Input
Amino acid sequence: MNNVRTVSDTKRTFYSTHTRPINSIYRRVVEELMVEMHLLSVNVDFRYDPIYALGVVTSFDRFMQAYVPEEDKLSIFNALCQALGDGSPPYRQDAEKLEAFARSLSPQELLAWLSLSSFHPEAGDLQECLQSIGHNSKFKYSRLFGIGLFTLLELASTELSKDEKQRNEALSKICAGLHLPEEKLLKDLELYSSNLEKMAQARIVMEDILKADRKKREERAQAKGTAATPPSGS
Output
């Protein structure tokens, strides 16, 4: 008997957990992330790790950056994680722990650590996790894992993450150390960057539409108010 959760199961759980409607511009973002996480969770070779967690958190936070109402974002994220089944890992806690460790290193130290060129005992279980990724011939690479790696480079150095040559050289070194598919990683990050730009443009268009609509309502209300006020001396 096949008890593997389906995408429909995951979506049903999500919408029964977060019951408020999701703004249309963001609904597709949430559902695509949900499906991606679901498909990974049922893959036999997939193993959760803090870099993947950082990719999930970063992707959600950046694409949902201007979501209104702001307080719904926490509910949406929690429902997203819980929808994947029992025993949902602590995505934010693991992401924050990894971020804190990355910030404690210089860009050179972080790059050497991520490429398994150096050992940091103070990394604790993060060190063990990184080594298991590098030594696992069946490691299931994912776009979200790639986003997690890129986020670490951003934390290490803004210049490094923005300079294409430096960034690609750093990613190449990491891919060699962890035995990751470099070409796929670079394509995933290029698409990620492109999608962030499109989302930012969509937000601007949406804000302009809302401003225009608000202005029309104010003008109509003002016109009604003027019409309702009798002229003096009548």
User: Anything to note?
Assistant: DSSP finds eleven helices and no strands in the chain. The two ends are 85 Å apart (CA to CA). Residues 182-228 form the longest helix (47 residues). The mean pLDDT is 89.
